[in-house]
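User: We ran a pulldown and think these components assemble together. Before we commit to crystallization trials, I'd like a predicted model of the whole complex to look at. Sequences follow.
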Amino acid sequence: MRGSLFSLIFLVLILLGGVNGHARIFIDINSPSAKKFAVAIPDFRNESPQSGSPEFAAGLAQIISNDLDLSGYFSPMDKGAFLEGGNTGEDSVNFKNWSVIGTELLVKASYACVGQSLELDLKLYDVYWGRQILGKRVLGETRNHRELMHRLSNDIIRLLTGSDGIAMTRLAFVGDATKNKEIYISDYDGQKAKQLTSDKSIVLSPRWSPDGKRIIYNSYKDNKGPRLYMRDLRAGAVKTISGRPGLNIGATWSPEGNRVALTLTEKGNSDIFLIDLNGNIVKQLTDHWAIDVSPSFSPDGSKMAFVSNRAGGTPQIYVMTISDGSVERITFESKYCTSPSWSSRNRIAFASQSNGALDIYTIAPDGSQMRRVTSGTRDNEDPCWSPDGRYIVFSSNRTGRYRLFLTNETGDNQRMITNLPGNQTAPSWTR
Amino acid sequence: MSRRFSNVCMTLAFMGLFLFLGSSCAKKQVQVSEPPKAAPVQEVKKEAPAPVEDAAAKEAKLRAEKEKQLEKMRKAFEDESIYFDFDKYEIKADAKTTLQKKADFLAANTRYSLRIEGHCDERGTNEYNLALGERRANSAKEFLVALGIAPARITTISYGEERPAVEGSNEDAWSKNRRDEFKLIY
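Assistant: Here's a predicted model for the assembly, 617 residues in total across the polymer chains.
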């Protein structure tokens, strides 16, 4: 861990001239077993007049620490190991104090709260080279401090990986804290959770539109079965999209966001249909006596993964080519495979039952390269990819009640992100 | 179908509105001569129950008893669910006996219609379980229809795994949750 030579094997160091923002550690995020960087984030220095908002010293640092941890590329170090705190002199970093405890990256920041505004000055250091590699000054409203910190986390991740982070993304999910199932929305880290619907009924399967402006979901609010509704998040208006007799369930957006595929049973059989946002049927996609549910489109919209029990009566994942309607089964390993979610990087996550418990797997659309993401004695279900296709959010009852967990696609950075009253399930992820 | 129904509703509503407006207009026109009309109507109402009090009381008592009996049967009907195997929607042998009883009741009590609710155990995925729950409800409906109950009297709804009858994560609880429930509507 301490040997920086070791880490050199896994990273490319690009040194450019200049002191600020040019020296680069580069994290190869496509490497399946990238080593995590030890990052130290001492409490931020409070420079507020009359020492206002002292709780931010640890609080703001914690938000960035958690973001870096959730990214899977860093392991935030225990503050107890630090030889110095965050309050030592401004630009004089004693790199030896950090390198000796194994620190590879150091985040130092100072902040000042004045009235409603928060000003923050953050510096990121490469401890091995003893250089500042990022300097950011941000100004915003105190009440938006989480967003400000997420933005800085993304800046750090972008600098070190060349890819945008996920710290500014958001989730929708189902919660039953009120004893009814309702939709909640939150930041990607499960924080700032807010109840969105108040149907006082059963609300299921929230799905963000590709542009993140609308959510479709099922509700039993009129007591006639699960109907499909669409909520415009800005206007708050709710529209019935499909209220046909029987089921109108498991809806998913087309990549362009102008169509929705869902399971309808009006004609007595559960088949998948493509409808427009006024609920008119555009095309019947499946036509089989078996149960067909849970469609999920490929990023280019040319294919669709779905669940069917057409072979032997057990649910399996199938992939349909929309243009010719041809269907191929891609799962064979278990008697119960459901909930396909097709990523922007062309992998399909799904839940599969073995030994009585559900676990998350991923598979290539042609059925090859199946990989296990979770393994446990309790259930892990409802996988949903991050917009960048590198992370999976899912629900698990491994700690008792259902909570949302976030993991990278290999499954070796699983973190619980919600801990609200009741259960949290059925996550959907948006930019 | 539903559009036609709502059209009929609209027409009826308009007719009602028209009649109401018409009558209130009429009332205004003959305002002075109206009051005496109202009085005899009230008198007629008062007269009717008085002479047949004994017979009526007897009849009411009998009816109450019958109603009580029916209420008991109704409760028994609604309390008896049928159960399914995991990931299955075929009607089992013992459930056939239960459904035969339900068909007999429905045949004898034609004022009721029926709502069948299909349910699943907590295992598996909500969406698949919603489809499975609907198949379970439809299986029972088809069975009752085959026994002569008019399909128009039966509606179905699936709750998937959302409304367990019994809490718990063991086979005992699961087996009680994989069920159809039967609700009478009148």
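Residues 82-185 of chain B form a domain with the 60s Ribosomal Protein L30; Chain: A; fold (CATH 3.30.1330.60). That may be worth checking against your pulldown data before setting up trials.

User: Thanks, that helps.
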